[in-house]
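ok so I'm stuck.
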Amino acid sequence: MVKADYWDVSDEQVVEKTGHGIAHWTAILAAFGAEGRKSNESVALLQDTHGVPRYWARTLTTNYLKRAT
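replied:
not stuck anymore, here's the structure
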C-alpha cells in the first residue's frame, strides 16, 4: 500500500530532478487539460514533450490531479 503522502514532494526536489518548480509543471498540466484526460496522457506529455523522467512525470501528474479534485 502506498503511503498517503507518497506523491507529496518539495519544490526543491522537483527543481533538482526536472529543472523547474511545481508551479511550472502545474501550469503546463492545467493548460493541457490534465484533469479531463487519462493520467497516462499527461505523463506522456511531460516525458515526450518536456523530457521529464518517467518517475517524476508520474509524480507530478498524480500530485496535480490530487490537488485539482
